[in-house]
Amino acid sequence: MHATLPGALRAATPVFADEAAAFIAANAFDRPTLVISRDRVARQYDALSAGLGRARIHFAVKANPAPQIIRTLVKRGSGFDCASRGEIELCLGQGARPENISFGNTIKRASDIAFAHGVGVTLFAADSDAELEKIAAHAPGARVYLRLIVENSMADWPLSRKFGCAPSALPGLLDHARALGLVVYGLSFHVGSQTRKSEYWNPVLDQVAGLWHGARAAGHDLQLLNIGGGFPAFHGESIEAPRAYAAAVMRAVETRFGDVAEVMAEPGRGLVAEAGHIAAEVILVSRKSADDLHRWVYLDIGRFSGLAETEGEAIRYQLVTPHDGAECGPCVLAGPSCDSADILYENRPVQLPLALRSGDKVMIRNCGAYTSSYSSVGFNGFPPLDVVVL
Q: What pTM, to 2 d.p., does this model score?
């Protein structure tokens, strides 16, 4: 990082002024760099927490594992949803208490279960008989919550069937967990990533509520409802303010589930995405033929260096350029690597200024989630995404 960015880009950013944008505007970068503000993360945490009320936030660590972010959230009183031994060690190293950590991955190495149990983690997720048996063997007496596959997701990015059990399998899993000596503690689900409107939760909550009440009627003293993630960030389409959104979700939960002993939420994107932006550069603008209607704009960052969530064009990142306000035209946006899959947006071309040229500095907005954690070590020799935490 060095010297100052051209004044044109500085003039383009105040509309979206925040700490990370101001820092990018005041500096230049010799490689793609994520700049993220701890203060903005803290403010977002406070807003979500106020809306969620009695629900406990467990930050989805995979969204952004920067130690400074984890430490900030520890001080805020957050819990943590961890998917691996490495994430558990990270959180403990930044001051998190083991009782505030849940091992939320339903696919765990046996030795990692034993490690988590050994350091005091008591809450584990599962979605199969085999996973319950591993937990019983390596974390005897642990509390478990069973993850469900849910239908009717209206999220921008509905999740696959990789995680969760079918509703028909739930009764058997609950009985099996109890027979293994585990504490059958609750249920979990994920409404789908980037669920932009709070009312989109309702069909999923209806489905889970039926299973919850059925399990309790069958004699399982469920205490925990883990509503997972899905809290949105701004990526071009309007979303509700975080406090109002979270409060609406909690009203919907309480209407369907009543006085649940514990409610847990696992925001990732909704907590950190808007706190960070990426400083990037245009490295080529071209056309494939003289009569091509679309320009191709290549950035120095692509799907393998942090922008993996452009898969399926589900997450639509917004760009700030030195030419904002000038005439625009459609572009195919792509990354720099020698891989034909490294195309960000082609089915739905993006509108970018016609004046955009190689060497222009651009800012990719609201990239604080799932960019640094998805960045490869150095595919094709391009450096991994650099990170500056303010």
A: 0.90
